[in-house]
Specification:
It is a single chain. The chain is mostly helical and 218 residues long. It contains seven helices and no strands. It has one domain: Phosphate transport system protein phou homolog 2, domain 2 (Methane Monooxygenase Hydroxylase, Chain G, domain 1), CATH 1.20.58.220. α2 runs antiparallel to α3 and α4 packs parallel to α7. It comes from Clostridium cadaveris. It is found in: Cytoplasm. Plays a role in the regulation of phosphate uptake. Belongs to the PhoU family.
Length: 218
Amino acid sequence: MTRGSFDIELQNLHNDLLRMSSIVEKQIYSSIEALVNHDDNLADMVIKDDDLVDKLEVEIDTKCIMLIGREQPLAKDLRNIFTATKIVTDLERMSDHAVDIAKIVKRVSGEVYAKQLIDLPKMAKLTLNMIRKSIDAYIETSETMAYETCKLDDEIDELYSSIFTELIKLMTKDQSLIHQCSQFLFVCKFLERIADHATNICEATIYLVTGEVADLND
């Protein structure tokens, strides 16, 4: 394989990863929309798309293995391929959490919410922004962008703490809300975990650029 062909294969790999990221972002957005709007059909679509994400994960991993097998990659190229496999794994886990949220939509189907959902959609918006920026940092191979993106996790953690406290207060005040509020607590936790996976993507990008392992999930 020539250098030009190898670079094309790497670009195709990036394009596949971007496609996977786009699907996962849509799943996360749709899962929250389904929750807010009591939309079981939209929740079902999120769950169904999990198969597509799993298929893409296998396809991208296979391409990575084939790239390594066809040529003895340079150290930087090998890091690029290895980073792609790590990011794909994190995207697949994000998809799993979106499915988890969609399943919660089904569990609270038909229930009247104790209050309008405002902070959970806000947390989801911040999380989606973090995902997009983490992928941009990877595509641009920008260590600076990766570090800047990780700072968004602090905002998400603060909002998580605020939502958690409010839901605990609601359950303490009215025990009939325990089931519903506990489900919302799970949603909050799943969004927080998705943000952690975005941080993992930033760590992978830093490794790609510098060859050094960063631990930003503290």
